[in-house]
Fold:
Amino acid sequence: MVVVGIPYDSDGGEGSRARSVLRFVEKLQSVCSVQVRTWDESFSTQNVISTSLEMKKSRSSRRQALDDKAAAIILQSFLDHCAEPGEGANA
Structure:
């Protein structure tokens, strides 16, 4: 399974960035033999920054691998959701 984060607007709407990613997802699904799932990535970068600040990380340290850390938060959120009773990865 491939999980793709969708950057919805702060009001939950599909802005231009979300529409662009959703077009990518459609193309990916057409060439990929595994299931492609989307997941709301709203506030993932802000969560990384907040966590880094709580951990008293330096500014340069906070900038390192920001996207990687945000991707990890998105994936963990998806996995946590799938672990909820009745949800599962195929829901």
Observations:
- The CA atoms of residues 23 and 29 lie 10 Å apart.
- The chain has four helices and two strands.
- Residues 1-42 form one domain.
- Residues 66-83 form the longest helix (18 residues).
